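The methods section describes the discrete structure representation at length, but only in general terms. What matters is that the chain and its backbone geometry are given together, residue for residue. Nothing conveys this as quickly as seeing an actual entry. For illustration, here is how one protein appears when written out as sequence plus structure tokens:
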Amino acid sequence: MSKTAQMVLKIIGASLALAAFVCLVVGGWHDLSVGYCGMKKSLMHKFCSEYDDYDDEKLYN
């Protein structure tokens, strides 16, 4: 096989691998966002201030 054909096949293989990765990310985007939001919420809850649980509007009215 000629070097040109080998290079074309490598380019096609690399582009297919990139397309597969993009499809994987797009297909799992919802799962990634749900996981990120859940992690963010748990970290906010874990490291929140001790006074965050008071309702200040009701306290000063």
